[in-house]
Fold this protein.
Amino acid sequence: MKREALYAINSISEYHALTNLGKPVHPLVSVFNFKEYTQPNEARPRRMLYNIYVVNIKKNFDGKIKYGQQYYDFDEGVMTFYAPKQVIEIKEMITKIPDGYTLLIHPDFLHGTALGSKIQTYGFFTYASNEALHLSAQEEEIIEGIFENLRTEIHSGTDTHTHDVVLSHIDLLLSYCKRFYDRQFITRKKVSNDIFLRFEEIIAAYFKSRELSPEGLPSVQYFADQLFISPNYLNDLLKNLTGQTTQQHIHNHLIEKAKELLSTTTLSVSEIAYQLGFQFPQSFNKLFKNKTGTTPLEFRQSFN
């Protein structure tokens, strides 16, 4: 079966036209309630490349979204976030209009603003669909209130304050989303702990079985793929549970493996560096010194 072509959405107007929402009030930012939404038909593309930011809160959604090899069924209130250059695939068209809101932001609306830089730090914009934000009833009320305030502001007409006020509302919305995601890592602690324990098993097995690594150092992407989650979700989960990023965990295991090889083998420092995946021994020496306070050679000599 031939795969459907990718349909790029480059503007707010294109999104509105695709969903029969009518002309947007503002060309660079839009909020709509799903009550305004027109039922999509079979002609609507199922594989879309978003070149705008999209924030959704959806309830009672009976379609399925695919991200990578994962599917997510929106059978309860959840939030999803898409950044420019993300591909979204709709596997099953919806048969009823869901409840909720969508916020669309063109990158140009954020250009040159503090939020334009800040939004790059929110890892949840590249979380997979199965890592959606699940809201409590109280959290849902807060989020929907901000969406409604945003919609009211955008539809009330443009003046010299509109841009700043809308930016403030978006900033507030995303700040709450960050807070609620951090809470989710705590309230769904069993799931988070299960992922963490599995991560520890995979990384330990990696360094136990690995020999020469011509492909280079182990990446965050590698371990995220093994766990069937996105790199940013793994990173944020680990930071919330342990206070350390995925990269820091990888470096910790690298150093422990290096110590083992330095103290139990006659391999040279350069050979150990290459075995661990470093392209240049100098990079290995620098990391080892930063982590331990001594050079690899000084560490080895301490055993003699």
Strands lie at 7-9, 29-33, 47-50, 53-59, 64-67, 70-73, 78-82, 86-92, 99-105, 133-134. The chain has a mean pLDDT of 84. The radius of gyration is 24 Å.
